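Sample intake — LysR family transcriptional regulator
Collected from: Komagataeibacter oboediens
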Amino acid sequence: MQPFSRFLVYFLAVARHRSIRKAAESLHIAGSAINRHILLGEKQLQTPLFERLPSGMRLTAAGELLYGCARRWMKDLDDLNRQIDDLKGIRRGQVDLLAPEALSRAFLPELVSRMKDSHPGVVLNVNIRDNRQIYRTLLSGEGDLALVLDPEDMRDLVVIRRMSFPLGFVCRPDHPLARHTAVRLAQCADYPMVVPEQPLALSSVFERLLERGRITPGVAARANNVQMIISLAMTGIGICFLSYLDVMSEVTRGDLAFVPLVGANVPHLTLALVHDRTRQLSRITHLVETSVEDIMSRHVV
């Protein structure tokens, strides 16, 4: 069902693509028709909605207000349709899940596969976003559920489930360190290390731990990409400092070993499943929520 006027449909497309030409391509509508409706809307509202720049279309302050309202209207309509489907007992539809890239290697593929097997009629739209942007994106109505790492501002969110992933050292299964169930930083100082670099958040955490322990590591290599660090660890270049979440799939397959780091100053990585406090979750969304919770519970170290 599409209750919105052509103007709003065209307006949202232009705002999203920042271009009348790209909006026309996505909607399969002539660009002149889209431009005409935008101009008519601006005339009726008696204010410009876009700045027309050489680089494209940019929303004005009034346009930003309309865009936010239109997004909420669309989300409310989607919620209504899902609730009507629930009343009919129909288990079909889609759920938008926001998540950081760190979950894309093991956690999210498992979730999508599980949902496909258990509820083939439910489409799970996984939107990978910068972890720092997920909070704002969820509250703007662009997601039903979100997985957030180390959440801070939770005033407008409901935390459905949270769990902690330990930080530690990763090595090959035949490495002497792999025989330990847990280690202290001083025990690892004699082994060559692959050191995480900025912009990885683990870089500053690792530096603080080294300073507090007054430890100077033997650096075998440095890298600012988690996949690169994992690849170096698998070749035996050195041990590396990561979270269990980063190597979940490799540890499960037996390709790498993960040894938790213990000590008074060692933090944990927190993963939280959340939703907007102002929204009522549909039954379909609850299905996804249950699957996420089950996967989280099975991966507790």
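Post-analysis note: The first strand starts at residue 50 and ends at 53.
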